[in-house]
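Please review this one:
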Amino acid sequence: MIDAQRPTSPALALRLATAAVLVLGLAACMGETAGGLAPALVARMDAPGANLDRAGALDIVNQYRSTTGSGHLTSDSALETQAQALASQYAASGTAPKKPDGVAAMRVSAGYPTFAETFSGWRNSGADAVVLSTPTATKGGIGVAYNANSGYGVYWVLLIGN
């Protein structure tokens, strides 16, 4: 919450405005749910058989990349297959996977039931945000796995390639 009595820096104001535009743009581009957010943002993955809207999730990453001046990522079936295998391995073992050879960047996360929460964590982490904005990247793949018997439940992997 911003205190009307406290001045804000221009950088903070710009970041808040960018975040608002991003959320509104995502909702407008992808259709809204009753709660106002795009279905790809809020679909829960913490149930057996849940299916991630990978194209919608990658669109969310691309909307963010556009705010940083980075180019569009195209979906890559090989990266998606690899990301899914890594997410499944992560969910089974509880140990974060290492970045595969030939992949420009990788982000992992665990415990967030929706892509909105996962993406928000990445976007709000300085190191993760830099990776999301990798300027040379041209393709991406997202994987998610659920393990009801694990401590975190839902495990995410984003692979970015050139």
